[in-house]
Amino acid sequence: MFALGGVLAMLIRAQLASPHSAFMGPEVYNQVFTMHGTVMMFLFAIPFFEAMTVYLLPGMLGTRDMAYPRLSAYGFWCYLIGAATMVVALVLGLAPADGWFMYPPLTSTEYSPGINADVWLLAITFIEVSAIAAAVEVVVTVLRYRAAGMSLSRMPIFAWYILVVAVMILTAFPPMILGSVLLETERALDWPFFQVDKGGDALLWQHLFWLFGHPEVYIIFLPAAGMIATILPVMARTTLLGYGWVVGAAVSLAVLSFGLWVHHMFTTGIPHMGLAFFSAASTLVAVPTAVQIFAWIGTLWKGRPELHLPMLWILGFFATFVIGGLTGVMLAVVPFNWQVHDTHFVVAHLHYVLIGGYVFPMVAAVYYFLPIITGRTRFFKLGEVAFWLVVPGFHVTFLAVHLVGLLGMRRRIWTYAPEDGWAIINLVASVGGFVTAIGFALIVVDIAVNAAVASRGRRNPWGAGTLEWATAIPSPSYNVASIPEVRGRYPLHDDPEIAVRIARGEGYLSWPTRKRRETLVVGTSRAEPLQVAVLPGNDGLPFVMAVATAVVFLAPLWDAYRTAGVALLVVIALALRWAWSNGSTRDEGPLDAGRGTSLPSAWEVPDPPGWWGSLFLLLADATMFGSLLFGYAFLWTVAPAWPPASYVAPGLLDVLLALVGAAALAAGPRLAARALLASRGPWIGLLVALAGAGALTAAAASIWAARPDPTSHAYDATLWLLGGFVALHTTLAAIILAYVCFRVAAGYASSVRIGETRIAQLWCDFAGSTGLVALAAAWLPGVFA
Amino acid sequence: MRDVLRLSVPLALWLAGFSGVYALQGLTCSRHWPEDLPARPALLVGWALAVLLQAVLLWLISRDPSPSRFVQGTSLALAAVSLLAAAWTSMPVALTSTCL
Lengths: 785, 100
Hints:
By secondary structure, chain A is an all-alpha fold.
């Protein structure tokens, strides 16, 4: 994908190299720059660090695999199918052409007829399923699947960074997913969320998009920063200076980045005070960024650096990212932002940040971890040549792009006139761009040649202190033969024999006596051993389910809504089949975990891995719900064509149904769990909860009955969406409750195996509480009106 | 999990406070805000509440320390950052025009 994005970049530079270029027409150029941004942001940057994480994180944490290996596979297949769809659309000339941020009204059916915009909205939303899947399992893996004794203060620094990033994905992606749903619904069904004359507002899209889009920059930067914080101390032959400060800076940067979204909207006519809030927040993020930079410089200062190739790329990062950061501070200043908005200055800034802050450190990471991946020691030195092509070539290109932006060249224009005075600068930028591209191609050749024919290497060639280097190289699929107990941040330095001890089976769960794949679940904070989790075997289900999910998302491109509906039923059936393969029909009691420890199976605890996964998935869901309420409040406050002709007001029966339904959803699963604990049947509780789901659905349906035409006004469309949100979650709760009923009947529950009932309780609590809030939001304006 | 909450709650509440003050500013400039009710005092109260909330959190975290020195130090630092962020990012309510 990086190669595809790079080729598209070269097409852009070829087009802009000379004035009045006949290389591409505006229609093709629009598709090319849109796809360049889309490919690089959605199909390369995020999937690449997620892939590195899924591969490396278990080793770093000293565990056997990610928490949900089948979810990893499902996410991978979703990504692959979605990305392939985008590429095929490009080849067929059906690629989106409205810029990677897809602003309406340009993306409305009036100005973007055809399916090009729908391809973006549906395929990118589909791909985001994989991002959310990966984020859930990263959070659960970091919090619960670590080596014994690896407390929060002993976690590898990359684990901290990726934990922060995963939480960011769970909270930043939902606003964009919601925005895509709204825009696609408007395009397909004419629900007027962004049509001003019908109570919509195009600015709502910008808010939802940048609520995702600005944190996205840090979602991309922080994993790279995690790689730097991992690699730099090793290259400097020391330990990371200010570990706690770096963790604090990463957490601060992650959260503060959510307060910046409007700084992409400084020219939209927002009042000065609003601009000042976001200008202040934008300048503030420079502080935690600087803390990290100074910690890394300090690490170099206290160590004895060696200039291996990864270190060279990190130095390239420093030189580039600091410039990108400074131009970012310039752009945070409102008057300057007004001057350069939508010019090539912004293009240059974002490339300095993203290539300098992400690509260069990730190249360093690829070279650093290459021995783990290939098992070989790099011999051919093409990488050094590539470095000296890429970094100078990049600076030639984008310093020139800064300049041409300051001279007034706007973004996304397909050509310019000779008298504009931009020709020579653009030519220089294009030459630099092609040199950079040749450099990146050399990196690919270098890695391929070294992976194929370089000599076999030894374990831990860099002398690192973290656990991923404790295994043989290339690392085996199970990562560690036994799960170690660690006593410090750098286990290989603390105990040089730990690799041998792990291989000898002196850790936990060393012998597969129970003939299944097991790993350790530990306490979140102190990492004391708590449970034995059973990992699934090889399974084709994730692939089949990804294909079915693809049909759900992509069939609407051809208006095949019935096919999409059938595929959705297939997805639900497959998901239930997936869940059914977990668990046991008998109580196993405490299991021998090695080192004289007995632990319960993860199937026999109140908080099994599925409970934690549900918890964090619901965090994303809650963010989606919050975004929906924000959109509603935004339209109510700002949209010109409000208030609507009338507001919906509830009847007494509707309110009673909502209150009783939510109460039953809350009480039912608790009654069921209590009955199971007392070795009684949980049927009454489950039936109460099912009835509650039905009552709440009926209350939501009353909104639809009261306002039957969602196309008439954005208010009506929003009501339909709120009702839809409630109905979707009560339906999900009902499916889960019915599933628990069947599981109990099949013997998968007992007084110790109550985990699945507790998971159902989580989903029921969410459905009930959000249902009440959604219905209150729908009804209150009518009550007060 | 308490330690994770200790580390994450102050900044999460900063974000909630920041968004709340921004939403209040939007409301004061909208047709729903009563004309005879001055906007700036309401915004100043919102700002003060956001800062006060952070001060209380900082006090609570310092009063009930985590057993882990790392968690305690980092959570105190993050609570202090949240307090400063609350004071800094909503400061425009006292300095700039409300709805221009």
